Amino acid sequence: MIKVGDVVTYRLDGTIGTVVDVKRDKIQIVWEDGFTSWETRQSILKNEDEFIYYQFKINELLND
Asked: Which of 37, 45, 51, 58 is the residue whose CA sits 20 to 30 A from 24?
């Protein structure tokens, strides 16, 4: 669940931002460069989710 104050990453280019509003399927984010935009849940990754994903990938590589 993404909520106001969460730090997120834009999936396409890795830009970091902070969630400032959540309306149904859209999330408003202030990006590290000061730009603000509305994004879909599919286009962003909550930073703790990103950590878990990369941890899984590293473990997968180590076990091969």
From this structure: 51
